[in-house]
Amino acid sequence: MKKTYICILLLSTVLPLMAGIVVRDISYYEDESLIDNDRAYAMERCKLDVFVPEKVRKGTPVVLFFHGGGLTGGNKSIPEDLRNTGVVVVAANYRFSSNRAKCPDYLYDAAAAASWVFRHIAEYGGDPDAVAVTGHSAGGYLAAMIGMDKRYLAKFGFDNLKFMMVAPVSGQMSTHFQIQNERLGTKLPIARHLVIDEYAPLWHAGEKLPKIVLFTGDENLDWPGRPQENLLLHAMLRNARKDARAECFCFAGFDHGTCVAPAMIVLGRQKVWEAYAERKRPLLMPPPYDTESGGRLSLKTKFGNAPDVPTSAVIDRKGGKVVFNISCVEPEFGRLKYKEQCCNSDCVHIYVGDGNGRCGQFTLDSSGRTEYYGFGLKKEAYAATATRTADGWNARVEIPESVCDGNFLANIVRVRRTLDSEETSYWSPVFGSHHLEPEAFVKIK
Question: Can you name the residues that pair with 165 across neighbouring β-strands?
Fold first, then answer.
């Protein structure tokens, strides 16, 4: 954290925000020889801002956002509805369609911004392998094009499959009307004809693609034909290409301008984290826990603002039981928070499952209370105790192997609640409420 912020302070002027900081006006063309046409205009326009959440951690997912404006206007800004979702956000400008830039200049600009993110976002706590690209209106069109057509990122040494997700908001899925205006020498706000060629996201629906999530407004309120184009792309991906990952959200009651707010909420609070979990879990999951080795595991994080309070566990399998012995260092018992329910206090959660959707939860807190919540597990005897030690407290749970029919899966979470803070430490790489998903559990050999 501290090293990340020091780098940011050295790079640019920092503007404090309620939920983080913004580093402004970073030029994303690092090699001017890659700029086609009017390099001076490109260096003037091609800049981006980076929003870093207040509690950013290394490996945080990233959202790259392109503004709208018909490819002829607009300016970069961090969407308000992304600021409190825990993600790193990058907002980028690009050249406008004018006498100084034409198609595909702005498409390469968008790809150059993405390549900067892939190369540098780790310096800000972001994960370059967990980047979702989005944008509103014309920005959604740019996001879709660089996410679906390989040639733009290829110029900068990247593949479009590096994107974790492509998620345009009310973006044109046919060839953009401003590109048609360039061809015809017109200035119409909407094209007379529907064109689908190499500059249409629909043209590239048959390629191997990242996950596609489409957002639009109401079919009767959004830009004429815009929801229908997105629904067509969704149908092509789901039905013709058999891509079960594709999704499309048309927000009832929202028009072309207002649909960006619900889209950013769904994207930042749900879809980005789902995609992050899908992409990162196979890489981060610990191997099956071998009780025969007598190994000791540590939970994923230490609690940042407190004295050193590590949590660790040993799991054994003996006498037909799986035994969890969890050690919690605790130097500040006087500052811990206790509530009526054990699960709302300073506590350890042990989740067990059988891989078939049946799950149980054992919760123990530092005052010695224990609770069990059954979610379909067989009713079997178990033992659970929590006791104080010289330097903290221990949690111990004994569970018959038979409750999981021999296929024993587990996840461990410690929640440390004090009078003025709350932090969570995980064994498995889980995110928020996802600790009960099957992928969050580790097999106990």
Answer: 132, 211
**Torsions phi, psi of 25, nearest 5?**
55, 55
Alpha-carbon separation of residue 304 from 2, 297, 331, 422, 427 (angstroms) = 12, 19, 14, 10, 16
CA 20 to chain centre: 17
What is the per-residue burial (b if ≥16 Cβ within 10 Å, else e) of 396-416? bbbbebebbeeebbbbbbbbb
Helix (H) or strand (E) segment spanning residue 112: helix 105-120
The residue count of the chain comes to: 445
The predicted structure's pLDDT at residue 3: 30
The first and second tokens of residue 411, run together, are: 């996840």
Which ranges of the chain have pLDDT less than 50? 1-18, 431-434
How confident is the model at residue 1, as a pLDDT? 30
- The two beta strands, 60-66 and 126-136, are parallel
Q: Identify the pLDDT of residue 4.
A: 29
The rounded mean pLDDT for the chain is 87
Strands 60-66 and 47-53, sheet pairing = unpaired
Helix or strand or coil: residue 113? helix
Give tens-digit pLDDT for 125-165.
Answer: 999 999 999 999 999 999 999 999 999 999 999 999 999 99
> Could you give the CA distance from residue 27 to residue 49 in angstroms, rounded to a whole number?
9
User: In the block, which residue shows the tokens 């409750």?
Assistant: 403
By DSSP bridging, strand 88-92 and strand 126-136 are unpaired
Identify the pLDDT of residue 40: 96
- pLDDT value of residue 301: 59
Closest CA to 392 of 325, 335, 332: 332
- pTM tops 0.85, yes or no: no
Whole-angstrom CA distances from 321 to 30, 373, 401, 427 are 60, 19, 5, 21
**Three-state DSSP class for 263?**
helix
Q: Any alpha helices (H) in 24-96, and if so which ranges?
A: 39-45
Torsion of CA 4, 10, 11, 15, to 10 degrees: 80
